[in-house]
Please model this.
Amino acid sequence: MRRFALFFVVCALLFPTSFLCTAQSGGSLGAFAAQQDVGTVLHAGSAHFDAGEGTYTITGSGDNVWSTSDDLHYLWKRADGDVVLSARVAFVGTGGEEHRKAMLMIRQSLAPDSAYVDVARHGNGLTSLQYRNSTGDVTREVRLGVSGPPLVRIAKRGDFFYVWYAGADGKWRYSGASMKLPMQGPFYVGLGVCAHNKDRIETAKFSEVRLTERATKPGTEMQGTLYSTLETVPIASTDRGVVFTAAAHFEAPNWLKDGSGFLVNEGGHIERVGAKGEAPVVIDTGSLDRINNDHVLSPDGMQVAISDNTEPGGSRIYTLPLAGGVPKQLTANAPSYAHGWSPDGKTIAFCGERNGEFDVYTIPAAGGEETRLTTAKGLDDGPNYSPDGKYIYFNSVRSGHMQIWRMLADGSQQEQVTHDETNDWFGHISPDGKWMVFVAYGPDVEGHPADKEVTLELMSLADGKTSLLAKLFGGQGTMNVPSWSPDSTTVAFVSYAYIPDVDGGE
Model:
């Protein structure tokens, strides 16, 4: 009993008002070692393990698990390595708070502002991967594209976390929600409940709970099946949402002008993905079957310019109806990569390599001669028009590393837009002209390779201030082309993950 007395004393000294420590013996708590209230709660929580039924019933109070601090009742054990935790989750009673949360949670510490990752089932069915990058940071989330799955799973492999779910058939499916968040040394893994109302208590039952642990094997994080996930992120909330995920390699979403879905490229083809995650449909592009990730829609949304490598010599640009049809070749020279279409529909901007130099060019959309707009040494790439047609934004290494630049549409008055240490690629301007989103690589990354930690940064064009929109694993293919929603509120992108089969197995 001395160790439990000591546990109470340490908690009281370290966290006098933050959380209530209520340790219990491991034998009465099933797979877990202890339970306690984390954060500020008005009503003490509890956890009970029914060995006969194999169920955990957890009651919790607290205001929320969100922002910079968490309130919940937490049933936990210490772990160090890789873990997989799964459970069937059901709330007890009806009519509770619609945002009450039942969670499978991994925390760095028991402090209320700790870094953490969880899969949270809300009372209204919303299910999401929530995370706090570091102590005291704000909470962010990736919302799953399914409501109220009865079975959920969170898997930690190295520094990566993945969320799975299963429906009535009991078959596990990767959700598309993943995150990289390093844990420093031993951490906590367990089950939690938050009432989302400081004056209430809520109860959830966790059954079919399975917790497995294994040593982390360095170098295995890139092993497994590659999944691509089409996501959207509203610029106001930054709460990401999964639209579609598949064990395939697709890239570069264009948001359709009517908001009905997206274009992506996969396996040399252009595909249309529905806004609600409907399965991709291949668009007829005739004999062209080596289409890359540089494609752009016309301003009226009726045509698409594609870049294809079928003909010898490298990528050339073609246009065709969005509904599919016979492509019309636009550029004679190769390689050429389509990126921007002028708001009046008359001109296409592209990156082309000529005589060993990559520069920005334009060409009439109806066909004609190309015009070179940049002449600086080094790579100029990713040209994209402002919605008023006045500027072309592009990325260039002329300053010493990749930054976003802009110029007048005729190529004059070239000026630098971003001034930071990261390598910035593919600046895309919102349809209302107020925002620019771009992909930022670390200072040590050359080019725009795949399989890198990147961020999507949002810049206000009114004052030049930049904020984090999303952190993800991706890079090449994440956002090579314009991907704003028609109403300028949301950005589409692709994230990637290597998923080990064992994490989805029984």
Q: What stands out?
A: The chain has two domains: 2-220, 225-499. The chain has one helix and 40 strands.
